[in-house]
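name: query_chain
kind: protein
chains: 1
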Amino acid sequence: MKHCVVIPTFWTRSRGTAPDRLINVYDHPTSVDGPTPLPTCLKSLQGLAGLGKVIVLVAATDASCEHEAEDRVCEIVKEFPGMDTMVFGPADLGSLHRRLEQLEFSDMVAGVSLTGYGAVRNAGLIVAATLGAETCFFLEDDAIVTSPSFLRVGAEGLGMKTPDGRVLFAKSGYYVDGQGRWEADEESGWYDRFWREAEEYNRAMRTVNRPPRIKPTNLAFGGCLALHRDMYCNVSFDPWVLRGEDVDYVLNARMHGADVFMDNEWKIVHRPPEPRSAALQFRQDVYRFIYEHRKLEFARSQIDLRRVTPASLRPFPGDFVGGSVTWRATVTALLRALAGHESAAHLAIARVALRDAASYARRNCDNYFAFQRRWPILTERLWEDVALGALFGGERRVDRSAITGRFPVVRGK
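structure:
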């Protein structure tokens, strides 16, 4: 089976640099001049049975460092000459966008980019379709593969019927830490009474190790995810969800009549660094859950979509995408501020939950559905596209050194 491995990477000028847009806020982007987990991830792929093409996507928090980040990734990839690797950065994205415009898909450009979690993953899916990949495996650059049969286990069952007659087109494994633990830290105080996210996540994960081995899930892990072509060519990621695009993909698949399954024998070691700010991560979750609640409500008015309710998603994300999410987020932000946890930031989040996040959701909740309706047509047109295939397959190259504005960094004395 022809397949590819896609690894999104996220970069920033420095840890103190603020992203230039709301959609560019990432949990833990790597500084372009700092240490990166990417070499360790790539090293863990060496000797992996059945390893196909490895596509590394380079996204940045702002345009000022995107070319520097791409150069850094290219240098890292050179350390693995025996691996069939492609670095997809701004130059390749420009070629892709020009091709979309030629094929009269200019309206899709915003959702297939290197800006935002969902759009970055969509770019990876487009590359996979262009290369004719039957299966697209997603990893993350801070993940480590520990089993030589990782891809074989991940592909088991894909494209086949389950005992209850459903077809398995999308499958997720799960994360463990260096000690093999999957549990999220549930330490929280009175101020999180209305926001027990870690507890609800753990409740959902406790069902994973129960029989059967492979079963439908409300969760997905973007660093241990396998998508069959019949799934990824028909269902896209949501470019407007600000965080948790992997769990959001479960909702998207379900609304379009499919399911994502969890395999309790497929796992990967995940070693993310500490988040830059708990308040910043919470703010993105507030935007995310309020947006997803609005999206589910909007979907109810669409006659061609299967209805998905918050109750059907319990225990997680469940009530976090229900009607109570706005007041729960507001109260939690105020209580955290009162408890002295990044008080100014949490007071600002209380205002965000009441005003900005709701406005963002209203403006964008129907964008995904317009984008998604065109997605299967786009992937069909680009399946093994000759023009892009020559570029992404390595038959021809983009001269990155000729890109306007690509100059060495001038450092002060």
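note: Residues 401-413 have pLDDT under 50 and may be disordered.
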